[in-house]
Design goal:
about 160 residues, about 0% strand, mainly alpha
Length: about 160
């Protein structure tokens, strides 16, 4: 977390002239600070998670847990990256959108690995687990993936251009 806050201060120090103290004061009021990004990121994350879980449960009616997970996560990840691009990190326009989605795919792969692993472990431990148990495992895995997603988006995907 210190790296994120430090990167946030460094980003604003480079953008503004004057002392580092002036830059930090301006950064505290600016739209790109972690304090300003986290609420947006959390709202988008909650909405994305609900969308993902609804897709998963619906797809689970006709597909295996792994296939339902892959499709639901892929669809929700694209929407999540686009929403965070615009609302959390303030990037508008289409310039760089494809690159941002491709870089966001790394966060998707981390989430896919965690959620697929959770489903595999669950299937091994509790064959034919109920949907409630599957969804609970996915929520835990998604929580871990969310931390990784924010760090990747903040420090790599939507870093200062």
């Amino acid at each position: 977390m210190n790296e994120i806050l430090s990167a946030d201060r460094d980003e604003h120090d480079e953008h503004r002239g004057g002392s580092a103290r002036d830059a930090r004061n301006a950064a505290a009021a600016g739209p790109r600070t972690v304090r300003r990004q986290l609420p947006s990121f959390l709202v988008i994350g909650v909405l994305s998670t609900l969308f993902y879980l609804a897709l998963f449960v619906t797809l689970r009616l006709v597909a295996s847990s792994q296939v339902a997970n892959l499709v639901a996560l892929a669809v929700s990840a694209v929407a999540n990256t686009a929403a965070n691009r615009r609302f959390t990190f303030g990037i508008t326009g289409s310039a760089g959108a494809v690159r941002d989605q491709l870089q966001g795919a790394v966060a998707f792969l981390i989430g896919l690995g965690l959620s697929s692993g959770a489903l595999a472990l669950l299937d091994a431990a509790v064959p034919h687990a109920s949907r409630v148990v599957e969804v609970t495992g996915l929520v835990v895995a998604n929580g871990l993936a969310t931390v990784a997603r924010f760090v990747l988006l903040k420090l790599w995907v939507f870093r200062k251009r």
